[in-house]
Write a structure and sequence with these properties.
This protein is mainly alpha-helical. The protein has seven helices and two strands, in the order αααββαααα. β1 and β2 form a beta hairpin.
């Protein structure tokens, strides 16, 4: 049976749970604007709770205990399951498939890998390999088109290639 497909929000919540048990309100604080992960993808509290429920239903997270809330209802503390940890690790190692996904998916992965104390080098190498041909083709289109959409895509590709090259120099793959 195929595993339940997860959204970027669900992976972000799972990544925060991998750092330690948490309740939904705490997870939503970790995804609010200005937080380290929220700087990449901001998620409103109801969507965090929905993602947490889906992760529990999929067996990737589980309730651990209930705590008294501070001036509010009780809070259910959740933890990542071993299956959830494997699924998260697999996702973190997998490069995104499209240039447009660098802005959110790839950046969330980089932030989560760094927060976990890992090296982003291997992911960067794989990402550069996966997008190499697409980035090259898009960048070449910059000088030969008057189509503003194609021009926008070409310039984004050049910026993405420059960004990945910079990351590759900054975080060389460990030997």
């Amino acid at each position: 049976m195929e595993p339940t497909p997860l959204s970027l929000t669900e992976y972000a919540v799972l990544g925060l749970l991998a750092e330690g048990p948490a309740h939904g309100f705490g997870l939503s604080k970790g995804l609010e604007a200005g937080s380290p992960v929220g700087r990449v993808v901001t998620v409103r509290r109801p969507l965090v709770y929905r993602a947490l429920g889906r992760l529990v239903s999929a067996g990737l997270a589980a309730p651990e205990r209930v705590e008294a809330g501070e001036a509010g209802p009780q809070r259910v503390i959740h933890r990542i399951t071993p299956q959830g940890r494997r699924r998260l690790q697999q996702w973190l190692e997998e490069p995104v498939g499209h240039v447009r996904d660098l802005r959110l998916g790839f950046l969330v992965k980089l932030v989560l890998v760094q927060r976990a104390g890992g090296s982003p080098g291997p992911l960067i190498v794989r990402q550069r390999t996966v997008l190499h041909d697409a980035l090259q083709a898009l960048a070449q289109a910059a000088g030969s088109t008057e189509d503003v959409v194609e021009l926008w895509r070409a310039h984004n590709a050049m910026a993405a290639r420059s960004f990945l090259d910079h990351l590759g120099e900054r975080y060389p793959e460990p030997r």
